[in-house]
Design goal:
The complex is a heterodimer. Chain A is mainly α. Chain A has ten helices and no strands. By secondary structure, chain B is of the alpha/beta class. Chain B contains eight helices and nine strands. The chains are: A mainly alpha, B alpha/beta.
């Protein structure tokens, strides 16, 4: 049923697109019809695949690095008062700097290759993961902490057996947001300066009025982003199996008998 | 680290003195936002008995229990005495949603890093069977009803095997029948331990308590202990009990007025 609905929506959108092209008669370099884009997808499949591989690699590396660094920062902030006093203000202030404005600098420092895009994606991903996880670690149900205290648990045991698992749903939310913004980081990085990747290909095609190729690259990027999100969502569900029914509820970790 | 250090805890004295309470608070003083909650309050928990604490909301029943549990910071010159470690059971079941029922019962051992021996697991299974949850060991808390979850919490409290058990309105969120059943079960399983049970239900206090105390006023004072007759758990339709319940309700209503 869901597949049917999706198919109907897709066909409807494509039909509307084609109708718009026919009705307005816009030139193909302004708005190419779906047939032209589909033809491009077919004829330039190898080219698109080559660039998609670069962008995909940037996104995945950025996601892994960003999630690891973000989670480590959250754990450091939770575990150490010194880290909270020194690191937290820096983190908050750092968010006042628009990350996109850093893209030219990153390209200048790290070059036209993979590194500058991975750094860009990592920077974008780091913050949502760190804040969501840190928030989750801080907002442990106080009753759980009291219980652990009466049971004679050490602070390390409380972190490992109570606060960490209790914060996993919040961590999963952060990772979901990260998966959604990761492609933005990679593509922005490619726009500023690159020699490969879908963002580079789009800019290149745009300059030559190959609008159909641009649309084809955009389509591939959207499919990749959706696939990534679906994969990450599935991993997140596997990480918090006790939450499978309330995945989108913000305060789900609180378990209070009513 | 068996006890959370909160108050000066007196060293365990000669254990052959039978009159000595298993736990006590002496000269409790605590201010809550400027107004004194307690000022010179004494509470004794005689060894091996169930003491029930009644009182209107906000009078400080929970705070008193938390002082004994080492979960609240007392002001000097409050002295908290405990002859042994305590187990604490709250109004919420506080089950860890990511752990199965058996692992929740074994939480204390996990938190203290104790090895999960077959004997320990066997004891946990036995306790779960006693509270009527045999066969549910692998279920997550979300799959259980409120009454079942509270029974798991009871099994977890008993698993700690502490001589002193502090319970804060443990059955208040349950329907009447489930509550009666759990009360009977608690009497059976808590026999021989020193228990403080905070409740807002006079009937519960009268069914389960060797002594019933009423906490009223500001700063709060304890009433003289009421000792209901008969063996626990007392029948909820015992006329003597119902008479006492009327008296307690009147005392509580006067305190609230």
């Amino acid at each position: 049923m869901r597949a049917v609905r999706l198919a109907v929506t897709a066909i409807g959108l494509i039909a509307a697109w084609q109708a718009l092209v026919w009705a307005t008669g816009v030139p193909r370099f302004i708005l190419p019809g779906p047939d032209l884009v589909a033809a491009r997808l077919w004829t330039d499949a190898a080219l698109l695949a080559h660039h998609a591989m670069y962008t995909g690699l940037e996104i995945v590396l950025g996601l892994i690095l960003g999630v690891v660094l973000g989670a480590s920062a959250a754990l450091a902030l939770t575990g150490s008062g010194a880290a909270r006093r020194w690191l937290l203000p820096v983190l908050v202030v750092s968010q006042a700097v628009p990350v996109f404005a850093l893209a030219p600098l990153l390209v200048l420092w790290l070059g036209y290759g993979l590194a500058s895009k991975v750094a860009m994606a990592t920077l974008i991903i780091f913050f949502p993961v760190a804040t969501a996880f840190y928030d989750g670690l801080r907002r442990t149900e106080p009753g759980w902490l009291d219980l652990a205290r009466t049971m004679g648990a050490s602070p390390a045991a409380v972190l490992r057996h109570v606060r960490l698992p209790a914060a996993l749903p919040a961590f999963a939310s952060g990772v979901r947001v990260a998966a959604a913004v990761a492609p933005i980081g990679a593509v922005v990085g490619e726009w500023v300066g690159a020699s490969a990747g879908l963002g580079y290909l789009m800019l290149h095609a745009n300059g030559r009025l190959q609008t159909d190729l641009m649309f084809a690259a955009l389509f591939v990027l959207a499919v990749m982003a959706l696939a990534l999100w679906a994969l990450v969502d599935r991993l997140c569900r596997a990480l918090v199996p006790w939450q499978s029914d309330t995945v989108h509820s913000e305060d789900a970790p609180k378990e209070v008998s009513r | 680290m068996q006890d959370a250090p909160a108050a000066p805890v007196a060293a365990a004295p000669d254990e052959f003195m039978p009159a000595r309470p298993a736990a006590a608070i002496r000269g409790a003083r605590l201010r809550f936002g400027g107004t004194p909650l307690f000022d010179g309050l004494d509470l004794d928990l005689p060894a091996g008995t169930v003491t029930c604490l009644l009182g209107p909301s906000g009078v400080g029943k929970t705070t008193l229990l938390r002082l004994l549990a080492g979960l609240a910071e007392p002001e000097p010159p409050t002295l908290v005495e405990r002859t042994g470690p305590v187990a604490w059971m709250a109004q919420q079941d506080l089950l860890m949603s990511w752990l199965g029922v058996l692992d929740n019962v074994l939480l204390g051992a996990r938190l203290r890093g104790e090895p999960r021996t077959p004997a320990l697991v066997e004891r946990a299974r036995g306790l779960l069977a006693r509270v009527g949850l045999a066969g549910r060991e692998g279920d997550r808390p979300a799959a259980l009803s409120g009454g079942m979850r509270q029974r798991v919490a009871l099994a977890r409290t008993l698993m700690e095997d502490r001589p002193i058990v502090l319970m804060d309105e443990p059955f208040s969120g349950l329907d009447a029948i489930t509550r009666l059943r759990l009360q009977d079960l608690a009497v059976e399983l808590l026999a021989g331990r020193t228990v403080l049970l905070v409740t807002h239900d006079p009937l519960e206090a009268l069914r389960l308590g060797d002594r019933v105390l009423v906490l009223t006023g500001s700063p709060a004072r304890l009433s003289a202990p009421l000792e209901p007759p008969g063996a626990k758990p007392r029948a909820p339709d015992d006329p003597a009990l119902l008479g006492l319940q009327g008296r307690l309700l009147r005392a509580l209503a006067e305190a609230a007025a």
